[in-house]
Amino acid sequence: MSTAELHTLTGAYALHALPEDERREFERHLADCEACAQEVRELSATAARLGLAVAEAPPRELRERVLREITTVRQEAPPSHGRPGRTGGGGRTGRWSVYALAACIAAAAAFGGVAVWQNQVAQDARQEADRAQRQNQQLAQVLSAPDARTSSGELTGGARGTVVVSEQENRAVFLASGMAPPPSGKVYQIWFNDEGTMRSAGLMNPSASEDAVLLDGPVDRATGMGITVEPAGGSAEPTSDPVALMDFPTA
């Protein structure tokens, strides 16, 4: 295997996807190639975070509200020792039965609402986990693609970025380390550089100094990427000067 071919195996090696003979050959190459060693360290750190799922806890105020309302429901009185059947509308037992029935209905409605809410939360979490899993699978496919090419460079503020591009997958992944958090209410937005025209490629996690982003959309004619600081939620087009510009690696 040629040295040029060995340079393309960093993603597959980080994901333990190389056959045994290629792994041994690549590790011999790795001992003498600092550029590949750096890429393997960055890709391995990213791969370690790919299996994370999303979960949400019920809000504290919902539980407290239900418990508070339950304490306001009056308990049903003991049964009357008077004559059987004396439960007229003006009697004590009749009034307490109404309160008890109302309490049961309120409790059933409250806990029924909790159950519906919890079920919705569970469904949302499953959908988010499924979406994250699909994205992670696509990200891994790009990193381990046989034609994956990588390019690394220093970013603003001493951060480091690596972009991995696969023509076969028509996708790109951006890996960042040491990124300073964006200003409050802002987010880093990534853009494809389509021969001078910027096309949105997704948002970075504003709370992570290290991030792996599967760029949103196909690479197509893009020759590079840029990063700008945008309002939370992103922008339709760049509104600030780029904090980073990187060319995509070429064959």
TrEMBL record:
Pfam family name, one: RskA_N
Membrane topology: Single-pass membrane protein
Location of this chain's protein in the cell: Cell membrane; Membrane
Domain Anti-sigma K factor RskA C-terminal, first and last residues per copy: 106-243
Transmembrane feature ranges: 96-117
Keyword flag Cell membrane: yes
Keyword Transcription (UniProt): yes
Keywords linked to the UniProt accession: Cell membrane, Membrane, Transcription, Transcription regulation, Transmembrane, Transmembrane helix
Region feature Disordered, mapped onto this chain: 70-91, 128-159, 229-251
Name the UniProt record assigns to this protein: Regulator of SigK
